[in-house]
Amino acid sequence: MPDTPGSDGLTVGQVSARLGVTVRALHHWDEIGLARPSLRTAAGYRLYTAGDLERLHRVVVYRETGLGLDGIRAVLDDPTVDVPGALRAQRAQVAERIDRLQRLGAGLDRMIDAHERGLLLTAEQQVAVFGPRWNPDWPARARRRYGDTTQWLQYAERSASRGPGEWRAVADAVTGLDRALGDAMDAGVAPGSPEANRLVERHREVFASYFPLTRRMQVCLGRMYEADPEFAAHYDGVRTGLATWFRRIVDASARAHGIDPDTATWQ
Amino acid sequence: MPDTPGSDGLTVGQVSARLGVTVRALHHWDEIGLARPSLRTAAGYRLYTAGDLERLHRVVVYRETGLGLDGIRAVLDDPTVDVPGALRAQRAQVAERIDRLQRLGAGLDRMIDAHERGLLLTAEQQVAVFGPRWNPDWPARARRRYGDTTQWLQYAERSASRGPGEWRAVADAVTGLDRALGDAMDAGVAPGSPEANRLVERHREVFASYFPLTRRMQVCLGRMYEADPEFAAHYDGVRTGLATWFRRIVDASARAHGIDPDTATWQ
DNA sequence: CTTGACCCTCACGTCGCGTGAGGCCGGAGA
DNA sequence: TCTCCGGCCTCACGCGACGTGAGGGTCAAG
Questions:
Q1: Helix ranges (DSSP H) in B118-241
Q2: CA of residue B68 to C1' of nucleotide D9, angstroms
Q3: Residues A109-256, CATH architecture
C-alpha cells in the first residue's frame, strides 16, 4: 500500500490541517525554497515526509516569533548564524513596536477626547486659562450644537495637540482682539474704513486657530454674534453695542470683496 | 509677482519641508486622489494652495493615527462617517495589536531563555521533576558543549514550549526505558534479537522528544554513552555494564539496517 | 460514469510608498 | 548667451507573505 496516507508522505491539505498553516503558505514556502517536499506523486502532488514535517514545524515555530522568511531560512540553514542573537534582535524590535503602538494609542485617546469633549483641559485648567467668566460647560454645549459639522472636526483635530500653554496664547489673541474692537468702536472707526477692514482680517486670522474661516462664513458668524444671546452678551460685555458694530464692519468688508452679506451662506 | 513662493501656491518640495512628509507621498496622495493640488504651473509643477495645505494637514493628522488612506479619505470626504467611532475602532485595533505583540514578546523571551538555559524550569522544579540524582548544572554544561549544533537548536525549540508537566512525561519515558533496558540485559536478551531491536527503536522514539535522531546518530550516541564518564556512570548506575550492552544492541541494529557502526558519523 | 473534494500551476492584488531611470524647468553665475 | 545645478515631472518596478480567483487535472466513492 504505497499510497496510504502517512506511509511515504502527507499532502498539502493534511500538512495544513496538522500544522495550522494555509495550503497557500506551503506552496509559497515551496516556491521560495524555504521548505520543499522531498517527494511528488506522478500527478505532481506534493508529498511531505516526516523529515519535511520536522523542517516545516521549525519554520512555524520561528514564524511565530515574527521573524521574516529570510531570517528563518538563515536560522535553519546557516549553522554560523547566532540564533539567540537573532531572537534578541527580534525581541528588541517587538519592544520598539509596542512602544510605538502605545504612543499611537495615547495619541488616539487624545483625539477621541478632543472630539468628544472639545477641549482636553480640566475644568480648573479651563478657568485658569480662560478666566473666571469662562463656563466649563461651553465645550460640551458647543459639541451638541456643532458636533456634526466639518468645522467641529477641524477644531477637534487642532484641539488634540493643544495644551494649556497653546490655549493661553489663543485666549490672549482673542481678548486682545476684543479690546482692539472695543477701542476702535469707541474711536468712531467707520465700517468700510481701512482700519475697520484690518480688524475684520485680524478677526479671521485669530479665529483660524479654531478652524479655517472663509469670508462668507465670517459674515454668518457676525450675524450669529448679534442674534445669539450668549455671544451678544459676551460682546456687549466688552462694549455696549459691540456685537452689532462688529456685524456692520464684517458686512462692509464682505461687500468690498464682492460678497452680498444678506445672501451669504455658511457653506 | 505671480510666481513668488506663497502667493498662489507651494511646490511639492516646500510642502514636504513644511509638513514633514516625503515628496513621493505627496505624489502618491495626488495619484490616488486623496489630496491633489488645485493648481499646476504651465510646466506641470504641482502648486498647493492654502486650502490644499489645510487638507494635507488633516491627512497628516489622521495618518498619524494609523488610519489607512481609504479611511482618511472617508473621514475627510464623507460627512456622514462617524469620526469618533472610526477613531475608537482604530484604538481597539491598536490595543489588540499591542496585546498580540506582548504575547509575541513573551514567546520570544521563552525561546531566548530556552536557547540560553536549555530548560525553563527553576532548579527546584528540575529536582522535583527529574529526581534527586539530577544536577541542575547539567543544562548549562550541555549548552557549553553542544550549544552550537543544529540539535541544540531543535532541542531549545522544543524546550520553549515545555513546562513541568511535559518534562515529567519525558522523564517518565526515559526512566521507563532505562528499566526496560536493564531488565532485558538481565534476561540475557542478545544483540540483534528482535527484542533488542525493538528496544533500540524505542530508544530512538523516546530520544526524539529531545531532537530528531537518525540511526547513524544513534550509533554515535551509543559510543558516547560508553565513552563519556558521566553517561557511563548513569547507565552503569542502572545496571553494571549497561552502557556497553546498549552500544552492542545499537550496533547490531544498525548493521541490520545496512549501516557500518564503525564508520558511522553524527552527520 | 459521474460527482465532489482535493490537488496543480499561473498570475494578479494587497498597502503605502521607496527608489531609481530618464528627462524637463528655472534661477544664478561666467 | 551658455551652462550648471537643484528641483520638478512621469513612468514603473519592488517590497513581504501570502490571498484569491481562474482554469484545469486527480482520486476515491457511489
A1: 123-130, 138-146, 150-159, 164-186, 194-207, 215-227, 229-238
A2: 27
A3: Orthogonal Bundle (1.10)
DSSP-H helix ranges across chain A: 12-19, 23-31, 50-63, 69-77, 83-117, 123-130, 138-146, 150-160, 164-186, 194-207, 215-227, 229-238, 242-256
Mutate to test the interface with B, among A117, A153, A210 (most CBs of B within 10 A): A153
**Closest CA in chain A for residue B97:** A101
Q: Flag if A98 and B105 touch (Cβ within 8 Å).
A: yes
Strand C neighbours among A 44-103, CB < 7 A: 44-46
Interchain pair B66, A111: CB under 8 A: no
- Strand D contacts (CB < 7 A) among A residues 29-88? 29, 41-45, 63, 68-70
Domain boundaries, chain B: 12-81, 109-256
- B204 near B218, Cβ under 8 Å? yes
Give the class (CATH, top level) of B12-81.
mainly alpha
B11 CB neighbours strand D below 7 A? yes
Q: Which single residue is written with the C-alpha cell 486682545?
A: A176
Residues B10, B48: contact at Cβ < 8 Å? yes
Contacts of B241 (CB under 8 A, 6+ apart): B185
CB proximity B29–strand D (7 Å threshold): no
Contact (CB, 8 A) for B79 and A79: no
Per-residue pLDDT tens digits of chain A, which is 267 residues long:
333 444 689 999 999 999 999 999 999 999 999 999 999 999 999 999 999 999 999 999 999 999 999 999 999 998 888 888 888 999 999 999 999 999 999 999 999 988 888 888 888 888 888 888 888 888 888 888 887 888 888 888 888 888 888 889 999 999 999 999 999 999 999 999 999 999 999 999 999 889 888 899 999 999 999 998 988 888 888 899 999 999 999 999 999 999 999 998 887
Alpha-carbon gap: B186 to the closest alpha carbon of chain A (Å):
35
Cα separation of A203 and B252, whole Å?
A: 99
Interface size between A and B, measured as CB pairs under 8 A: 90
